[in-house]
Recover the amino acids of this structure.
DNA sequence: GTCCGGATTACCT
DNA sequence: GGTAATCCGGACT
């Protein structure tokens, strides 16, 4: 085995992301997001893509804000919204074609003290990562992380293999008006306490 | 240059 | 369950 060979997990996930964001999004459930001592198991994601999805940021073409979404599968697309919040996405589809998976919620595994210090308003551990803006706050994710490779095994922010869910619930994406007919929200059905909302609607 | 609304959160009733 | 906070990106006058 070559010492420079990429781990099978990363290669397989990157290939799945490149092939189809809707098929790949549920594969992110159960994966571990890690940064230093902090780690968490992803329990909720949403898929966005061009050209047939009006809810996708890149639906009207490339801009400076969404440029990372046109990059290589496995990159982090991080954007700012609502005046306060950063959102973490995993880029999908081949370079030049925009698609991404929004990471909406996770179950904290390690480094909870650091997460709590960055989320002082969270009263319970279930409040630490149960929303896309909460998750980025607890991991200290911001503009500086936009464009980093989550599957390269080199950067501080990484996606690693975990325990896949036994059951998955799908539903309409949260906060989306155009494109709500797409059931592209995916949740680990056995991890609902850690999700951004108790039940899909 | 100005205006509108947002892939949200947290607090209030 | 309803809504204020907060400010940037994209569209348009």
């Amino acid at each position: 085995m070559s010492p420079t060979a990429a781990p099978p997990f990363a290669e397989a996930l990157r290939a799945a992301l490149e092939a189809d964001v809707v098929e790949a999004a549920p594969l992110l459930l159960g994966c571990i997001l890690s940064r230093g001592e902090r780690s968490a198991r992803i329990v909720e994601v949403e898929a966005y893509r061009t050209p047939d999805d009006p809810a996708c940021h890149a639906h009207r073409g490339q801009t400076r804000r969404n440029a990372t979404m046109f990059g290589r599968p496995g990159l982090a697309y991080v954007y700012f919204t609502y005046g306060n919040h950063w959102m973490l996405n995993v880029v999908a589809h081949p370079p030049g074609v925009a698609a991404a998976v929004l990471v909406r919620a996770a179950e904290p595994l390690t480094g909870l003290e650091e997460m709590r210090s960055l989320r002082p308003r969270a009263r319970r551990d279930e409040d630490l990562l149960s929303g896309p803006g909460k998750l980025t706050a607890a991991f200290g994710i911001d503009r500086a992380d936009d464009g980093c490779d989550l599957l390269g095994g080199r950067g501080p922010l990484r996606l690693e293999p975990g325990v896949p869910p036994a059951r998955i619930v799908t539903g309409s994406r949260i906060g989306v008006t155009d494109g709500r007919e797409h059931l592209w929200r995916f949740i680990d059905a056995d991890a609902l306490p850690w999700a951004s909302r108790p039940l899909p609607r």
Remarks:
- The helical segments of chain A are 8-19, 21-24, 112-118, 132-139.
- The mean pLDDT of chain A is 96.
- Residues 57, 60, 63-66, 79-85 of chain A lie near DNA strand C (CB under 10 Å from a C1').
- The two ends of chain A are 47 Å apart (CA to CA).
